[in-house]
Structures are given as structure tokens and as C-alpha cells.
Design a protein that fits this description.
Shape: globular
Order of helices and strands: HEEEEEEEEEEHH
Number of helices: 3
Helix content: 10-25%
Length: 230
């Protein structure tokens, strides 16, 4: 009996240690980037979740995420708003810092680490004399946030989608058609699409209605008794 109890206790302990992070859908808010400023986080949803703060150091000339081909030079003619980064709350590299607060389930967490990615399709901007603004690029977002509250640590997985935009200033030189000013990622609820099972039920119902209509529209066939009377 003691062996069974010990085995059950061991299984419970393993389950508690390896429990997966909570997954939260971001459906509103934005992440904005400016050329000479930190990145601004303002994410939320209708369930009371919020994630607000900034990324980048206080002594930098603006936060630049990794692989940002919205910058123009070095992207070999390919532009997109696909970016990613891995940040912690306190670091010797002041450009790789996150200073934010996450709230979920009524609990406030001081964020200690933030790893994220935004993915967008490529685009080809056509610059005017003063640069240009380009937008409505769909993006997908994934992130992992770790925070502390009252000495306890919690980890959250974030997912979301929406539309991104970017703005460029006028050309600086022949080798640089235009330079980046700012970019933004605006979150929105995911589009609702029918499940395959719902589509199947809808199709079956439509076929049933069509079959009944055909049956009703067919003329009655004469019976042998009707022929004999003629």
C-alpha cells in the first residue's frame, strides 16, 4: 500500500513540475516601434489579460529587433516586417531589456523575460519623393513571457494575429531609397471560420432540402388504372 501511495505522489510531483505554460490569445492592442525610441507594448484581450511596458534600453538611440528587413539596406531588395528577439528585465546590454507588467487572472506579474516573434509576408514598396507609408500586412505573433508575483514564477505563451504597417522617410542617398521611421503591429480577433464538421452538416442539410424540392416538382406519373380508364 505504501508503494502505491509513493508512486501516486511521485506522479503528481512530476505532473506539477512539467505542467505546460498557460496559452493566452491576444486580440487587441499593439506593439509599436519608432526609430529613436523604445518599442512600446500594449497588448490585451476581453478576458482581463494585459501586457504593457517597453523594450529596449534607456541609453540607446532606439530599439532595433533582430532580422528587421523593414530597415531597407542589407535586405537585398526584400522587405518585410518579420522580427524576433529574446529580452530579459536586467542585462548589461541595455538595448536588450524588457520593462513590463503582465496581468492575468487578476494577478500582476513583473516580467523577467520575453521572447517573441512576428511573421509577415514579403512586400515591395514603391517610394515617392518623400518616402511612403505601407500597411495592412497580415502578421502572426508568438511569444513566451515569464514573470514573478509574490516570489512565485509563472510562464505564459502568447499567440495572436492582426495587421502591420510601416513608414519610411524620403531618400537619404542613391544607395538607400528611403529610411525607416516607425512600424506598428495592431492585434485583432482571429476570423471565425466554420469547422469541417459544421460544413459537412450544412452540406447534408442543403442536399436534403434540394432533394425534397426536386421530389415535389416532379409531375405525378399515370398509373395502369388511369390508362385503362382512357
Amino acid at each position: 500500500m505504501r508503494k502505491i501511495v509513493a508512486l501516486v505522489a511521485g506522479c503528481v510531483l512530476v505532473t506539477a513540475v512539467t505542467a505546460s505554460a498557460d496559452t493566452i490569445s491576444v486580440t487587441s492592442g499593439s506593439f509599436t516601434l519608432a526609430q529613436f525610441d523604445n518599442g512600446q507594448l500594449n497588448l490585451s484581450n476581453s478576458s482581463g489579460f494585459s501586457f504593457r511596458g517597453d523594450v529596449g534600453g534607456v541609453d540607446t538611440e532606439g530599439y532595433e529587433p533582430l532580422d528587421g528587413c523593414y530597415l531597407g539596406p542589407g535586405c537585398h531588395g526584400t522587405y518585410n516586417l518579420t522580427i524576433h528577439d529574446s529580452l530579459i528585465r536586467s542585462t548589461s546590454d541595455t538595448s536588450a531589456t524588457v520593462n513590463a507588467v503582465l496581468q492575468s487572472g487578476g494577478v500582476r506579474y513583473d516580467v523577467t523575460s520575453y521572447t517573441y516573434s512576428f511573421a509577415t509576408p514579403n512586400f515591395t514598396p514603391t517610394f515617392g519623393a518623400f518616402g511612403g507609408s505601407f500597411g495592412a500586412f497580415p502578421f502572426t505573433y508568438q511569444a513566451t513571457v515569464t514573470g514573478m508575483s509574490g516570489g512565485a514564477t509563472a510562464t505564459f505563451d502568447l499567440v495572436g494575429s492582426g495587421l502591420a504597417d510601416v513608414q519610411y522617410a524620403k531618400a537619404l542617398s542613391a544607395g538607400e531609397p528611403a529610411h525607416w521611421i516607425d512600424a506598428g503591429y495592431t492585434f485583432a480577433p482571429a476570423a471565425t471560420t466554420p469547422e469541417p464538421a459544421s460544413l459537412l452538416l450544412f452540406g447534408t442539410g442543403a442536399l436534403g432540402v434540394l432533394s425534397r424540392r426536386r421530389t415535389r416538382s416532379q409531375p405525378a406519373r399515370p398509373t395502369p388504372d388511369d390508362d385503362a380508364q382512357d
